[in-house]
Design a protein that fits this description.
Length: 97
């Protein structure tokens, strides 16, 4: 399944409701699973971003649908990266002329 890294920044609403953040992560995990995906890892981080989530979705379209809903909730803003495994990366390299 395609893998995605989501870099997230809390919005004012997210900060105002920070005490419920762990429950929102649990709810998001259930939504991801309901869409046929899997939350692989989730971290609170220090620096430019507040959270990093790593998830798999059956397709780009399903991943995008989840992320649009996440943004629409108003607690975080995301920057998302499609990630490739070492094996996939090796395959790309092997195809170079």
């Amino acid at each position: 399944m395609p893998r995605y890294v989501a870099l997230m920044k809390l919005t004012k609403a997210g900060l105002d409701d920070i005490k419920n953040a762990t429950e929102r992560v649990k709810a998001a995990e259930k939504i991801i699973e309901g869409m046929g995906g899997k939350l692989l890892d989730f971290y609170m981080v220090m620096g430019e971003y507040d959270y990093v989530g790593i998830a798999e979705f059956p397709s780009d379209e399903i991943g995008m649908t989840f992320l649009l809903g996440l943004g629409a909730d108003g607690f975080v803003r995301t920057t998302t990266l499609k990630a490739f495994s070492r094996e996939e990366y090796g395959g790309f390299i092997s195809m170079l002329p």
